Amino acid sequence: EESKGEYSAGTTKRGIGPTYSDKAEEIFVIFDNVFIPNDQIFMKGEIEFAGKLVNRFAGFHRQSYGGCKVGVGDVLIGASSLISEYNGTEKASHIRDKIVEMVHLNETLYSCGIACSSLGFQREAGNFEMNMLLANVCKLNVTRFPYEIGRLAEDLAGGLICTMPSEADFKSEEIGSLIEKYLNTCEETCAEDRYKVLRFIENLTMGVASVSYRTESMHGAGSPQAQRIMISRQADLEKKKELIKDILDIE
Fold first, then answer.
1. What is the secondary structure of 23-78 as a DSSP string?
2. Buried/exposed code over 113-151 (b: 16+ C-beta within 10 A; e: otherwise)
3. pTM of the model as a whole
4. How far apart are CA 178 and CA 72, in angstroms?
5. In 94-147, beta strands by DSSP E
6. Displacement of CA 219 from its chain's centroid (Å)
């Protein structure tokens, strides 16, 4: 009641605020008899626009994945390259080839994001809209490539990513020095640095952060079938059939 006329939900009352934001990045929200001020109502009964609104919102969301997931991929590729150095395998041809594959996949996603943005257009209202077909192609690729990038990162990290001693073991007065000795691979690197990079890769590929990199890549902005439906609608197959008819001189 106190938030009427100001907010659709109070931001200082029980249920919303730092109590939750510092513990989880995803929440389940139930809107139960929420008051919405008139100046925050953007559609009032115009249900004929609901479909277009959802599709365009989804298009912008899918466009953005050509940037946000690529940024995470850049960091994971950097971690994979660094751990290869720490493992002493960075000069092996198959290691370099796997890193090239990771870059290829990641930059393909970025290319899709750039393409759907640069081929966008301005509407009469003045706002710009992305190329809907390429935005969905971008997101459909995102449902696949981060998984392969993550798999290659796990491959490059080595089995130590799963069998590594705990932080408590590193700090142990009894065995800490032994762990430091046997996990150190070169003079320029201490075992703790190697440990940090391995833990980072572990977290991003199979830990808490993997939810936002892998699972979110699958279902965020719509699950794969949603993109396939939009690609089917935007494909303009009739035009493509006319192309082959023209080439083969078919009426």
1. T-S-------S----GGG-S-SS-GGGHHHHHHHHHHHHHHHHHHHHHHHHHHHHH
2. bbbbbeebeeeeeeeeebbbbbbbbbbbbbbebbbebbe
3. 0.85
4. 34
5. 121-122, 128-129
6. 10
pLDDT of residue 2: 45
Split at pLDDT 50, 70, 90, the class of 43 is confident
Domain interval for residue 5: 1-41
102 and 64 in a common domain: yes
Residues 25 and 73 grouped into a single domain:
no
CATH number of the CATH domain containing 182: 1.20.140.10
**What is the spatial distance between Cα 231 and Cα 128, in angstroms, rounded to a whole number?**
20
Claim to verify: residue 198 and residue 107 sit in the same structural domain: yes
Is residue 247 domain-resident? no
Contact 159/153 with Cβ under 8 angstroms?
Answer: no
Let me know whether 144 and 36 are in one domain: no
User: Based on the domain organization, do 136 and 23 belong to the same domain?
Assistant: no
In a domain, 160, yes or no: yes
> Above 60 in pLDDT, residue 1?
no
**Does residue 239 sit within a domain?**
no
**How many structural domains compose the chain?**
2
Give just the sign of the alpha carbon dihedral 144, 145, 151, 154: negative
Instruction: Give the whole-angstrom CA distance, residue 66 versus residue 233.
Output: 21
Q: Cβ distance 113 to 67 under 8 Å?
A: yes
At 119-154, the pLDDT tens digits run: 999 999 999 999 999 999 999 999 999 999 999 999
Contact assessment for residue 102 and residue 177, using Cβ atoms and an 8 Å cutoff: no
